[in-house]
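ok trying this again, last paste got cut off
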Amino acid sequence: MTSQAQIGIAGLAVMGENLVLNMADKGISVAVYNRTTEKVDKFLAGRARGKPISGFHTVRDFVEGLATPRRVMMMVKAGEPVDEFIDQLLPHLSPGDIVIDGGNSNYHDTMRRAAALEARGLLFIGTGVSGGEEGALKGPSIMPGGSRDAWPQVEPIFAAIAARAGNNEPCCAWMGPDGAGHFVKMVHNGIEYGDMQLICESYQLMKTLLGSSPDEMQQVFSDWNKGELRSYLIEITADILGYRDIDGAPLIDRILDTAGQKGTGKWTVNAALDHGIPLSLISESVFARCVSAQKETREEASTLLAGPTAAFTGDKESFIASLEQALYCAKIISYTQGYALLREASLTNGWDLDYAAIARIWRGGCIIRSVFLDRIAEAFQTEPSLANLLFAPYFSAKVNIAQADLRLIVAAAAGHGIAVPCLSAALGYFDSLRTARLPANLLQAQRDYFGAHTYERLDRPRGEYFHTDWTGEGGDTTSTPYVK
């Protein structure tokens, strides 16, 4: 191929290579570059053979192989590698050229990079790409944000390679300025953490409390995937439970019970703390992975610490029916918290996020894709300024009914000594949210007692702060109040 390519992809790991093939299959010409040049040659001689893909061994030749305005998409490891590659690109770029970060970068870094490149007359896009290896090849969910003027230049390419949902709509939409795209992808990943942990807790309850076999659980998850819980994660859970090792035994029983993480879940929790949003369920899903990683400590603790020993005596079918409703209720609450974080960040940063559009582009390609997202899109389409997802009629009606099953499941887990941190967090949030008067009045009194942090009064306007000399030995000097 000798003509200049429409877009360049730097980084030929799993996601980069499959995105290139996706683009080429849609008739888009692609230039590729990889720091290890042998990867470029191997790719061109293998999967890329006969496709509109050209390869380069130097950054300069790579950039010169692109039509103007140049579109360079980086698929490299988040952090310093992104900054390092941008520095390599800069001497070869011209005003109006577009740099795209398609990795899982921290949105703070994206905001910084967007400002720096725009100051040089360049355009920058930080885009979330979700769907893993299969999604990259067949159609991911794409969440771009950054320099608005860059969007018309890349929209046709992104729309062509994105997954399709609904009425053949591309699962791709502009999120907003600077770090909006990577923030939305970060929250997507946080919700993914929560979804996966909720499924794991349901599995644990069936396995440990009910004594269900992998085959029995596979049937349960297969049945659930025909109803309100139908989703990619429920589907693959059923597949996993049915998979057999080389000797015919269930493979799931031979997998070590420790889980890793790449950081996006932690970033989501940090962002929630920064914005004052109670992201309790997703936070517990991150901590659940941390606990799982302490395998040796848990094994020692299991020999020292006692718990309940009573066996389950109820009706299994009834319990599984309640578990299905509890899982759906907790899922609603998890997304409620995630969307609350999106809303607060949008208001703080002036992003003007379209919450219905976010739900729509998550319906296909990405890991959390599910029929449930149609309901969220409808809720925000009806009321774009919805303050809390549980205020939407469909969701309030659902949780008002399903909360009884959630209570039953959490109580059974506690009574039998089975950890269900995310199901428990869902119930805790629900009960806190529906309580008009929480005990924070006592908390504020405590803080004023020991630190003179002041408090507000029910019988005075909000924003007026008071201090009491609780011991009779203090003075009039006060500290600062807590302000979100």
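PB: full thing came through this time. The chain has 19 helices and nine strands.
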